[in-house]
Specification:
about 260 residues, alpha+beta, outer membrane lipoprotein receptor (LolB), chain A, 5 helices, 15 strands, about 20% helix
Length: about 260
Amino acid sequence: MEQRLIYFTIVLLIAAAALSGCKSPRQLSNGTAGAGSTRQLLEQAIAAQPDFRSLDIKRMTISTDKFNSPAICRILRDSAVYISAQPFLGIEMAAAKFTKSGFIVVDKMKKVAYTGDYAQLSDRLGLIVDYSVVEGVFTNQLFVLGQQSNSLRQLKAQQQEGVASLTYENQRIRQQFTLNPDFRIASSEVSTPGGQQRFTAGYSNFTSQDVLVFPYQYKLQVISGSRTLSASITITRMVANELTQIPELSVQGYRIGSLDSLIK
């Protein structure tokens, strides 16, 4: 299967992408919002986020310009994300598990496993990466890279060219979440100083599912210098709040590959 899931999970890790909606952005006047506007917009965006305990994405397709692969994804909120690529009759050929302490990526075809923590990954990628990135990509949650959940208060409201957004900026990165009329995140961009690295996401086909509204189509793109990585996810079946555990993922019997070879 080559490294289909490996490539895709790295896209997720470095994309730092938030989720989006299917409507046009909310129209507002240009300029930077004051503290009151920021507080109101942030509260509305937080209230619009999906509220769940677990997600069991039973059927989805991961696509790039080189391959399409059926897959599943299981999420326990604030705990773990498990992704499994199953290109042949439901047989798992590669898998990845992300927890707050680190991650495991297993290529069952090549019998190679990769393990590490987010500090190692951040050091090699040159930007902050943590568990909130992985979970946030899949669950339509606001997050601030390298910060805890209460750091959402650091987001600032802006109106530029008629579009409302929430932004965060420090010396290493700039994040921007654009909101739609329902205050869901319509698009996201993360960029590094100088713009040499830029990560964008666009999501559509928001669907009412059990107790939440969730995007069934994701589009992710990573631009790093002259290199561009793109991937999309199409969900066709999902259940909320029924999952109680995440599968174990062992490296026993696998050769341990270097993290540098995984992300190069």
